[in-house]
Amino acid sequence: MTEQNTTETPRQFPIRRECPFSQPAAYAALRTDEPVARVTLPTGKQAWILTRYDDVRSVLADPSISADARHENLPALGLGEREAAAKSRPFIRTDPPEHTRYRRMLQAEFTVKRVKSMRPGIQSTVDRLIDEMEAAGPTADYVPAFANAVSTSTVLELAGVPTADLEFFRDVTRISGGRNSSEQEVTAALGNMFRMLGELVDRRTTDPGEDLLSKLVVNHLLTGEADRQEVLSTIGITIIAGRETTTNMIALGTLLLLERPELLAALRADPSRVPDTVEELLRVLSIADSIPLRVATRDMDVSGTRIPAGDGIIALLGAANTDPEVFGAPDEIDLSRAGRHHMAFGYGIHQCIGQNLARLELEIALGTIIRRLPDLRLAVPLAELDFKHDAATFGLESMPVDW
Ligand code: HEM
């Protein structure tokens, strides 16, 4: 068993990516030399990071691991993130039986059948946005004009929230997911969102529709099974988790394709390869690398290291998804590999509830943009792009393009 040397200052985490399309180079060295490594977080707290696929998977599947934000040591990377989550209790940061109850409320809305039924709506949103870009072009900022607009419209449509103000939700996420945001800033941003959603809850109580918010109100709030705050936090985390991640994947995925003309040409020649490409992009980019935050509730031995009960653990999805023991030549986009066992959507009881919807959005967004704007290119050098190194999920704020 490795004993922890308490006199040494552990390395700082998060570790920045050197290349936007690859995980930090340090992950490979850690995986070999120190697969369970002690780190210091921006909050000043310490935690363990895991870099091996098998360790990430077994820890995330372990029923004795906790994701409850009320644990002081939940290893949040944002300054006010844990404290704000301990108050607003998004179910991503809760444990069973509480977590199970919330998750069941949503499950019916995320079945394969329900998600499939969203295809025509997503396709028409994507087509409309490309029409608008073309009409205003031939230049655009791809993030607000396309990536954010596709993902936010889709999740708001599902939730039953008017889609008029896409930027409102972008701002909420920018603050609530920003690593430098204080507890007060996060709480205020979430408060604005809950106020806005609260008015909709009142309206759905008397005039329900077919959307997710209406279902939560009719089937859970009005039956007394859930209270108002629970409905608000469930719908709120679904919107936040669903829009920022997918925005980042659409933008960063497009950017990677633009940098690989041979891959782009292969996809144009055979669009049936788009779904496989989406899987590989999800794996290689792993934009939600450090989203799974956990606390050990008992002493655990992981790859020969003792993690004491009460310590924080970050199960690094990007590190797991580029473990060469599982994915040979891990940084390569290889459409021939059966990529579905990657963990870009996490693993275990918190595994992404929106993954089928995310796949569908990516498939439609990337497939359509490749077909309709064959001359799409970056309008500035790659080195001038501003990547979100300090956000909960990795991506871009802005991506000037022309065609
Ligand atoms: C490419 C896009 C996406 C990625 C990479 C992603 C990634 C993830 C990951 C890694 C988790 C697990 C977190 C953990 O274990 O702590 C998660 C959970 C979650 N995701 Fe996603 N997600 C995406 C899209 C979506 C969409 C479109 C929605 C909904 C519309 C969504 C809603 C959620 C929710 C509600 C949870 C919490 C589940 C739970 O705790 O049981 N996500 N996501």
TrEMBL record:
The keyword Iron-sulfur does not apply. This is Cytochrome P450. It is found in: Cytoplasm. Belongs to the cytochrome P450 family. InterPro entries: Cyt_P450, Cyt_P450_B, Cyt_P450_CS, Cyt_P450_sf. One of its GO terms (molecular function) is oxidoreductase activity, acting on paired donors, with incorporation or reduction of molecular oxygen. One of its GO terms (cellular component) is cytoplasm. Keywords: Cytoplasm, Heme, Iron, Metal-binding, Monooxygenase, Oxidoreductase. Its main location: cytoplasm. It comes from Saccharopolyspora spinosa.
